[in-house]
């Protein structure tokens, strides 16, 4: 049964009883306890910072390339056979590397510039030149890797190429080229070298279709998305007689590099912008460990794996010195500023 609340007694209550007064709550002084807790928290934070700093300093104190402080290299395709072999060969020579995989081609240079990477290897000189000029940066090449030739392929008819020789391409017919800035200029260079187009002036890595002298060229040029060119050629469309296909799409189209009617000369001056390179920050161009990494990558066991991965299409560019590559980059950057 619920107990009824009892009224407080008043001065008018019988028997002269004194009114009851509620007891004041006991107020405990927690100042000392709070001070102790605060001191303990501060001490814990200080210890965490101390040991965290010791751990970082321990890594920084370790020589670059050691197990505790590996060389961090950004790539696209970290599991490709050349990187597996490179890692093995580097460790055999006492250099530990950490191959960081990227899924695109836009993050590696900012990561290198920010110090999150020590090196990267995913781009050619033209890509690096554009990045430096557009972002006011100064990343530099440290060593060459390879050039991948760009090929001209014939359109198909009933499942077979219409032409087996470049001389068979009809005058006045249309040839497709990739419409992205980098491959567009290179494709025009391929057509120029093949004698299919004439330019109004000198070719540069920034040449565009408007620089073609149509009146004095054998064929007409139409830019298209790179991934569409192979499919259009294979479909047997009468709109195209031939097209430049990026290496990335050759196999997807069921073609082989040897099917090309013409390929650019990967050793020619016009091909220099397309040399794939290792890149570092400008302050690291003389870093002995990073240079050693390039030397290890350029050894036969690693390059054999690179060729295996490229289906034998790579033209090695491992004989260029860092100084030569830096000179090429400087020229390309000047062209980029002048365009």
From TrEMBL:
Region described as Disordered: 1-23
Keywords: Lipoprotein, Membrane, Palmitate, Signal, Transmembrane, Transmembrane helix
UniProt membrane topology term: Lipid-anchor
Principal localisation: membrane
Protein localization: Membrane
Biased composition annotated in UniProt, kind: Polar residues: 8-18
InterPro entries hit by this protein: Lipoprotein_NlpA
Protein name (database record): ABC transporter substrate-binding protein
